[in-house]
Amino acid sequence: MPEEHRVAVAVIHGMGSQGDRPQAANAVSFSRDLYAGLRKRMGATRFDTLVGWREIFWSDILQERQQQYMDEALAGEANWMAWRDFVMHRLADAASYRWEKGDHAYVYPEVHARVSNAIAHLEGVTGGRAPLIVLAHSLGGHIISNHIWDLQKGHTTAPTPFQRFETMAGVITFGCNIPVFTFSCRPGEVKAIDRPGTAIPAGKWFKPWWINLNSRNDILGMPLAGAGGGYAALKERGELRDRWISAGNALSAWNPLSHNAYWADSDVHGSVAAMIEQAMQIGPVG
User: Fold this and answer.
1) Does some domain include residue 164?
2) Which residue, of 165, 209, 234, 271, has the greatest Cβ tally within 10 A?
3) InterPro entries in the record, alphabetically (predicted)?
4) 118-152 residues labelled b (16+ CB within 10 A) or e (exposed)
5) What is the CATH number of the domain that holds 265?
6) Is residue 2 part of a domain?
7) Rounded mean pLDDT, 95-114
8) What is the structure's pLDDT at 254?
9) Helix spans in the chain (H)
C-alpha cells in the first residue's frame, strides 16, 4: 500500500447558536458528529495518528450580545420566540459579519483573528508541511473564502506558507450561502478566490479542489457556480463541484432542519473521508 502521511483538518461552523463562551483550543464540540463518524469510517487508530483536527470557533463573539437583547427586549413575550431565536442566531450572524471601516467595526476582525489563531495552532500540531483540508458549514464557507481572499489580495498577512493556506489541498463547504453575499455585484463581476494550495506539488493537487454539498431541503444552502463570474469559471475549469445530497434523517431531511443535519450525514462523511485519504497521499509539502 502507498505510504500515508499526516494531514491537517480545520473545521469552521456557520450561523446559529454554538455557545457564548470561548472554547479550549483542542475542543471538539460543534463538529463532534462528523469527527466521530470519520474516526469510525477510517479507523480510530489510523485517524488519530494521521489526522490533526482543530475547530475554528467564533460564535461567542456575537451570541452573548444577541441573547442579552432577546432576554431584555422580549422579556415575557412567549409568542413566536422560537422563530425570533432562529432569526437572531442565524440571520443576525450573517448581517453582523461584514467588513466595515472604522473603530466601531469589531466583528469581522475578531472572527478572522479566530481563524488565524486556529490555523496557527493547527500548524503547531501537524507541522508546517502538512496538507491542509478545510471543512466549512454555512456562513463558515463565506468566512474562509474571505480569509483566503484577504491573504491573496494582500489585505492581511500571515507568517508561514501553512498560515497563508498555501498548503491547502482542498475545501468542502456544506450548507453554504456565499451566493447571498454576491448580489451587490453584477454577475460578471462576482469574484472567487484562486486555488490557495500553491505549495502542493504539480500533479498532486485536487481537481476539483472545492466541493460544495447542499441538501435540497436546506433553505440556507445554495450552489456556487450559478453565482456567476469567478465561481462559474472555477466550475468550467473543473476546480469546483456543486453536488446535491439529502442531509438528515426521517425527521429532518425533508425540512429546513436539514441545515444542521450535515454534521451527522453519511454523504458528507464519505466526501470528507475521501478527500482526507487523498490528501494522505500527498506527503510533506514544500
Assistant:
1) yes
2) 165
3) AB_hydrolase_fold
4) bbebbbeebebbbbbbbbbbbbbbbbbbbbbbbbb
5) 3.40.50.1820
6) no
7) 75
8) 60
9) 32-42, 44-50, 60-73, 81-86, 92-96, 107-126, 139-152, 229-236, 266-279
